[in-house]
């Protein structure tokens, strides 16, 4: 058997070391990031940050309101709402803020996009129907083939697609709504059939913002007693076994599961202005991620599974650690 020369051993060692470093770099590069909206630059734009709140990157820079980002399952695109037209329309961009494309153009208000698990479709709510109430719509990810899934006399809003693609959770005022209440969490098949109220027997009458756990076994949502006070709850996907996760003065809302299912981001005004917080899925170990000055708010978090570079071309470091985009359309 031929012996490996010292030179070859050295080369193999260097190759193994390079592979280990590359593997570590890839693992770090795919750490999830939080995408959110903030008015820290004078108007509402979309930003991203590490899970510890550092390395904030500004993704949009437009005088109109950009908000409610939703990250695609593969982490390459972000759908968001913008008021760059006459009203709120849906746009999509690359995860670094480039290649902004308008998906909807209607004289009504579109809201709250959510991607199908395969990334081919987007579900959202809109008030474009003839009686101007909000309905749940689905369309291809390029904005084509729009279909109304609900068509009901009361508002249906804030849809969220299940991880297996078979269900859509949403909020509705159907089932005896009076004076804008109750708002319950419903679930339906992805084609709009089989609608079922999940929260009607929970005692909660004003619930919002359902979001599925990554394994599809649970739905987290927010519910409030009145406009100024609310908490995050979680229930099994069949509406059973309800658990309250937050018990802090103020409005705690908009939960968003991290992709590994171990933590939940949410927004709260418990300290005055809305900031982004992170907690374990049992409600413990709450950490404030955005520490902007009073008067600056941070809302509407979504998880990005692919990390973009924190020093891309065209971005400059500014206050609070963010890196600002210039010249974005």
Q: What labels describe this entry?
A:
4-stranded antiparallel sheet, 1 helix, disordered C terminus, 329 residues
Explained architecture:
The chain has 329 residues and is mainly beta. It has one helix at residues 6-29, and strands spanning 33-38, 45-50, 57-58, 66-71, 77-82, 89-94, 101-102, 110-115, 121-126, 135-140, 147-148, 156-161, 167-172, 184-189, 196-197, 207-212, 218-226, 229-236, 243-244, 252-257, 263-268, 275-280, 287-288, 298-304, 315-317, 323-325. Strands 3-2-1-24 form a four-stranded antiparallel sheet, with no helix packed on it. A four-stranded antiparallel sheet has the order 4-5-6-7, with no helix packed on it. Mean pLDDT is 83; it is low at 17-29 and 307-329.
Largest sheet: 4 strands, antiparallel
- The gyration radius over C-alpha positions equals 21 Å
Task: Going across the biggest sheet, name each strand in turn.
Answer: 3-2-1-24
Count of individual beta strands: 26
Helical percent range?
A: under 10%
Distance between the termini: 64 Å
* Mean pLDDT figure: 83
The helix/strand class is mainly beta
Poorly predicted runs of 5 or more residues: 17-29, 307-329
Annotation field: number of helices:
1
H and E string: HEEEEEEEEEEEEEEEEEEEEEEEEEE
């Amino acid at each position: 058997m031929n012996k490996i020369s010292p030179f070859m051993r050295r080369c193999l060692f260097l190759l193994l070391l390079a592979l280990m470093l590359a593997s570590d770099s890839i693992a770090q590069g795919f750490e999830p990031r939080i995408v959110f909206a903030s008015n820290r630059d004078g108007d509402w734009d979309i930003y991203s940050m590490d899970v510890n709140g550092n390395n904030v990157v500004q993704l949009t820079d437009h005088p109109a309101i950009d908000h409610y980002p939703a990250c695609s399952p593969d982490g390459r695109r972000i759908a968001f709402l913008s008021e760059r037209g006459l009203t709120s329309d849906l746009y999509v961009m690359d995860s670094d803020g480039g290649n902004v494309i308008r998906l909807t153009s209607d004289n009504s208000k579109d809201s709250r996009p959510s991607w199908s698990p395969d990334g081919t479709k987007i579900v959202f709510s809109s008030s474009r129907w003839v009686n101007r109430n909000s309905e749940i719509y689905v369309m291809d990810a390029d904005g084509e083939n729009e279909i109304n899934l609900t068509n009901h006399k009361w508002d249906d809003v804030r849809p969220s697609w299940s991880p297996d693609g078979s269900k859509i959770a949403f909020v509705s005022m159907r089932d005896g709504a009076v004076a804008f209440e109750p708002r319950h969490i419903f679930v339906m098949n992805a084609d709009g059939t089989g609608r079922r109220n999940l929260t009607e027997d929970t005692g909660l009458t004003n619930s919002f913002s359902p979001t599925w756990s990554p394994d599809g076994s649970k739905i987290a949502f927010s519910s409030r007693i009145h406009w100024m006070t609310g908490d995050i709850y979680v229930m099994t996907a069949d509406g059973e076994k309800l658990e309250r996760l937050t018990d802090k003065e103020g409005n705690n809302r908009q939960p968003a599961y991290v992709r590994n299912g171990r933590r939940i981001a949410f927004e709260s005004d418990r300290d005055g202005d809305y900031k982004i917080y992170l907690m374990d899925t049992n409600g413990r170990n709450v950490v404030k991620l955005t520490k902007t000055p009073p008067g600056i708010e941070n809302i509407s978090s979504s998880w990005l599974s692919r990390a973009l570079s924190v020093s891309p071309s065209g971005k400059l470091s500014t206050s609070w650690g963010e890196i600002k985009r210039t010249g974005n359309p």
